[in-house]
Write a structure and sequence with these properties.
alpha/beta; 4 helices; about 40% helix; about 20% strand
């Protein structure tokens, strides 16, 4: 299963469901860094140092960082989906079907239904 880091604004119910599906996932809050104002660059650097792909809803800023430097363990750029179980399933299905995420940025978008 995937090693992941959820940034500060990523939905915790989705994190819980991804764990239930077997993924090794940490949150910025669990690291004791919630509310500290970690920059996007710092979050991405930490994720890469721990060989974790980063989960975020902040698609625009992290895609910009990816375009500047793809030396990271992967980005999973999600749209907001209040059906947290569906969001986790979409992420899980992509991770199961995809090649390793290193240096890649993937978009997970909500599908109707």
């Amino acid at each position: 299963m995937a090693r992941l880091l959820a940034d500060e604004n990523f939905p915790l119910p989705t994190v819980g469901e991804l764990r239930r599906l077997g993924h090794d996932i940490l949150t910025v809050q669990e690291l004791g860094r919630g509310g500290e104002g970690w920059t996007d660059e710092e979050v991405l650097r930490y994720a890469a140092s721990e060989e974790r792909a980063l989960l975020t809803l902040n698609r625009r800023d992290f895609f910009r960082l990816h375009a500047q430097d793809s030396n990271h363990s992967g980005l999973i750029l999600c749209s907001l989906d209040l059906d947290f179980n569906r969001q986790a399933k979409l992420i899980h299905d992509h991770l199961e079907a995809a090649a390793p995420l290193r240096a890649c940025a993937v978009r997970i978008t909500r599908r109707p239904g």
